[in-house]
Amino acid sequence: MSQFFQVHPENPQLRLIKQAVEIIRAGGVVIYPTDSSYALGCHIGDKSAVERIRRLRQLDDKHNFTLVCRDLSQIGLFAKVDTGAFRLLKNHTPGPYTFILNATREVPRMLLHPKRRTIGLRVPSHPIAQALLGELGEPLMSVSLILPGETLPLSDPYEMRQILEHQVDLIIDGGFGGLEASTVINLADDQPQIIRVGCGDPAPFGEA
Q: What distance in Å separates the CA atoms of residue 141 and residue 93, rounded to the nearest whole number?
């Protein structure tokens, strides 16, 4: 049975944030809000938690996982960022974008795309996500909360509780979430490529 924390979406209660981070550090799988939609998250190096998320979402080994980071400097630790990519990242973070970049050796192998050695990175502007990342001190391994067979993320925390309370360790209720995932941009190649159009405006990155 999962825990259910009601966290203020603009002024998160530090006591609850600390408890949430303890659950993450202990290997828990959590549902938390971002500036696009709700996401599933776990500790970056916890293999069993990653596998639980993989099973829950029915993801194959070619899925690009995302490291949700607190800021740009954290992205630079886990991804190879050239000048052009840095400019794009600086102009569009924090925000509802996920960027696919070539990973550094800091990224656990189990999170990498097996052939391309890439990783998704994102800096959300949501106060709850930022509070979690600040307390954790490292990125959260994350995927959007889109269940198998569905095209839209779950947005109602009480529905999440009904469906997933036996499959996750914590649901953070920060109010209703968005119905669109983040916009995904591939910056691992020479030209930016739009992989998925979500709630972030794709126009600055060229044609979809």
A: 18
